[in-house]
Amino acid sequence: MRFERFEEVARRAWEDIPPAYREGIDGLVVSREAVPHPELPDIWTLGMCDTESYPSEWVGPDTTRSVVILYWGSFRNLARLDPEFDWEAEIHETVEHEVRHHLEWLAGHDDLGDVDYAMDESFKRNEGRPWDPWFYQHGERVAPGMYAVEDQAFVELEFTPDAFESAREIVFEWRGSRWAFARPETLGDVHFVRVEGLPDAPPLVEVVLVRRVGWWERVKGALRGRATEVLESDVSNPSRRP
């Protein structure tokens, strides 16, 4: 998509945002620049919400001002990597994403920043680079012990070593039903079990088995520089339980 057409679509996406949600945003800037991710290869920053807060006892549109920026060069580079890249859908999604950043700044939190962090760590994991094994907890908490990071779902289960060793199978809940698979041989500190064959499942569902430790044990481990033991395994077609 040529720059002129890109700018036209971006302006239309901006105008589609209700005015109440654009309050405190001074406008949309469409840049020709391509902005690479500072650490991850072939990842490009598509947009940015540049926010500045002014000293005040109140947080609101008068004291927190933003500018939404879209980078045409980044879109172009990403489109070269993906032949099915949908320019218009990505433009609209990016504009909405950056406006939400502004709204979360006004509310005093940044959930999208957490999701961005989780996605970065997930990408590092897929690339075989060092990654944070607790990244999924930065995603959206959709239910107790369940997290979503875009199209990935994580079901977290805690075990003491004794409880894990005495269990014959791992039982978890999915879509209102109970499912089970054979217990892995080793618990580790964090064990990601990729589960295939679940109904109505996103591309990735993982049951995360977490070794339960007390706060003092965790502190001692940190002081001694003990590395977290992270394991990964796969299961297919878990059994439904009544």
TrEMBL record:
Domain of life of the source: Bacteria
Give the InterPro entries listed for this entry: Zincin_1_sf (IPR038555)
In terms of Gene3D superfamilies, this protein maps to: 3.30.2010.20
Could you identify this protein by its name? Uncharacterized protein
Species:
Gaopeijia maritima
